[in-house]
Design a protein that fits this description.
Blueprint: E1 4-7, H1 13-24, E2 28-33, H2 40-45, E3 50-54, H3 60-74, E4 79-82, E5 88-89, H4 97-125, E6 128-133, H5 146-166, E7 171-178, H6 185-188, E8 190-191, H7 200-211, H8 222-234, E9 242-245, H9 247-272
Parallel strand pairs: 1-2, 1-4, 2-3, 4-6, 5-8, 6-7, 7-9
Helix pairs in contact: 1-8, 3-4, 4-5
């Protein structure tokens, strides 16, 4: 029997590719975007399998309506993929309270709200799978992306707690940590309204690299991301909580993990003194 999915952020990029791959595999999906017009082509390509649903993640009523529509049209929700998101570029000093709240509403509060809404359904049916799309920056940081990094770190922390809470109810939780993929992430990324020239030397190169992701021949293909996600959802054996996606993701995170180990050792030496001979 095919699975029933609710996937956010499907107008383009990773969400669009995932919806296409799952529909091709015979599953049914409720797919979301802020404007359903952006989903018309996708729905037309898979009539009867893809249901377009409007969703504003920052609005509680919109989230409730989206889950209700998915339940009504599909009869249940087996898989929730919290994929929707947008970046904000700006140094810590540049980002205002309003901009920070808006970023966290999209990256943390919205996914948390959707998880809270689908969990009673999954508990009642005795199974489910929640996948939260994080990033390599869920475990590391880049200059100029402090708000985005903070949101992804928070999403991973929530997911870690949820995985323990949900496991007794036969609900799996997975954090996907994609590396660099050819999507509109860089071109759609907002910039903090208040800019401070003193940070340009540190942050400008990062911004230019993000803007050029879609055209960079070394970035991954969204279709490859989608194929890996289907493999993870279909897996009959336990999978890790955090799963990097993309060869570059493993490279980035290996460097980050080594840096963490070195920092931990330095901190221990600072606090406890050097190891005994």
């Amino acid at each position: 029997m095919g699975r029933r999915w609710l996937v956010t952020g499907c107008s383009s990029g990773l969400g669009h590719a995932l919806a296409t791959a799952a529909a091709r595999a015979g599953d049914e999906l409720a797919v979301t975007a802020r404007k359903t017009a952006d989903l018309e082509e996708l729905a037309a390509a898979w009539p009867g399998r893809i249901v377009p649903v409007p969703l504003e993640l920052r609005d509680a009523a919109s989230c409730e309506d989206a889950v209700r529509t998915a339940l009504d049209r599909l009869g249940g929700i087996d898989v929730l993929v919290n994929n929707a998101g947008v970046g904000l570029f700006g140094a810590v000093e540049e980002v205002s309270d309003t901009e920070l709240r808006d970023q966290l509403e999209t990256l943390v509060v919205g996914p948390w709200r959707l998880a809270r809404l689908v969990l009673p359904l999954m508990r009642a049916q005795g199974h489910g799978h929640i996948l939260n799309v994080s990033s390599v920056v869920g475990r590391m940081a880049f200059p100029g992306l402090a708000a985005y990094v903070a949101g992804k770190h928070a999403l991973e922390g929530m997911s870690q707690a949820l995985a323990v809470e949900a496991a007794p109810h036969n609900i799996r939780v997975t954090v996907l940590e994609p590396g660099m993929f050819a999507t509109r992430y860089g071109t759609s990324m907002a910039e903090a309204r208040h800019r401070i020239a003193d940070y340009d030397a540190t942050n400008r190169e990062m911004l230019e690299g993000a803007r050029g992701l879609a055209e960079n021949p070394e970035t991954g293909r969204p279709e490859d991301f989608a194929a890996r996600v289907l493999d993870i959802v279909r897996a009959n054996t336990p999978t890790p909580l955090r799963i990097p996606v993309g060869d570059d993701a493993f490279g980035y995170l290996e460097v980050a993990e080594q840096a963490y180990r070195e920092e931990f050792a330095e901190a221990r030496t600072l606090v406890q003194g050097p190891p005994a001979a």
